[in-house]
Amino acid sequence: MPLDLIVPAAIQDFDVLLMVEPWVYRPPSTPCRRVAFDGNPRDACALELLATREEAVTSAIRLAEAQLDTDLVGAYLQSFGATRMQGLLMPGGAVQPDWAVVQSPAPPRGTSALSLLRQRSDATVGTLTRGCATPACRTDRERVLDRWTRNGIGTEATGREIALGVIALSTLPSDNRQVLDEVGAALDSGQISRSLAGRLRRLGRTYELRGANEVNPSLVAIWADTCPWYTSWRKVADQREPLMRAFAWVFRGCSDGRAPLRGDARITMPMLVLNSTDDAVAPSELQQRWLDLATRAVEIEGRGHLWRDPQRAAQVARWVADQGPGEESP
C-alpha cells in the first residue's frame, strides 16, 4: 500500500502516532448480528457500548508521549475520524493539540443524517451522470437508474443490490473509473449485461451476510461509528426514493438519542479544512460546516475523498510548518 494512503504526505517529515481506529473495541454479540439481518437491530445491539471511546484514544496518546518523551503538537484527522475525535478538539478536551487538519471530514456532530445521506445520494447520481454532455443525457440516465434501483435487473440483482452497488462504486470514482464508464454506457443504452449486473450485486452484498444468517459485523461496526453523532435517523427510515431507501437499509441500526452528541462548542485552535469538491462519502457542502465550527479555520479545496495531489500536499505541508516546530508528533 502506498505510504501516502497511510500517512499523508504533508506530515511524513514528522514523528507520527498513527491510529487506525477500530470502529468498535469489542465484537458485536451473536444475537445482535443475527437479529440485524432480518429483524430490528436497534434494541438488540447496544451500539453505544461498542464505539471507540475518546478515553481510549487519549490513553494511547499519553502512552506514546511517555514512551517517546515528546508531546502531541497536531492532529491530522480523516473522514469520519474528524467527527469521532471532535470532542478532543474542543476547549477543555482531554488532549489539546496546537493545531488540527481535517481532510475530507464527515460532517460535525449534530448534523442531520437525513441531510448527509440525501447529499450522498445526490453525489452518487452526480457521479453516474458526470460523463453526460447534455441535460437530456443526465435525465435519461437518472430515469434508467431509478427503474433499475426500484425494480432490479430480472433475476440478476434486486433493486436494493443495484442501489448499494452504485453507492459503493461511487465512493472512490477515480479508482473505479472503468466500471463507472461501463455503468454509464449501460444507462445510456438502457441495457445491462449479466456480468455488470453481477458485479454491482457483489458490491452491494458487501453490506449483507456473513455466513448463512448473520449480518457482517463490519456493518454493525459502521453503526457504532456513525449513529451516535447524527440526528434525524427516524426521518431517514421514512424515505421512499430507491437510493435513500438503500441508505436507510445500510443504517437501519441507527436511532435518535442513543448517545450525547457533544458537538456545540466552538474549536479555537488553528484548523485547516481540506474540503473535497468531488466527494460522494462526505459531501462538500457539509464539510464546510467545520469552517463555521472553528474560529480560526483556513480552507483548501481539492477533489475526491482521498487526496493524492502533490500540489495540494505541498500547500498542507506549508500550513503545518507555519504552525510551529515539526520535531514532535502530530
Folded structure, characterized:
The protein is built from 16 helices and six strands. It is α/β, with parallel strands linked by helices. The strands form two sheets. Strands 1-2-5-6 form a four-stranded parallel β-sheet. A two-stranded antiparallel sheet has the order 3-4. It is globular.
| CATH homologous superfamily descriptor of the largest domain | Alpha/Beta hydrolase fold, catalytic domain
- Unreliable runs, pLDDT <50, ≥5 residues? none
Could you report the average pLDDT, rounded to the nearest whole number? 85
How many separate domains? 2
Give the strand tally. 6
Widest beta sheet: strand line-up: 1-2-5-6
CATH class of the largest domain: Alpha Beta
Count of DSSP H/I helices: 16
Looking at the chains present, what oligomeric state does this protein adopt?
single chain
Q: Which architecture of the largest domain would the CATH scheme give at its second level?
A: 3-Layer(aba) Sandwich
CATH fold annotation of the largest domain: Rossmann fold
Taking the alpha carbons of the first and last residues, their distance comes to: 21 Å
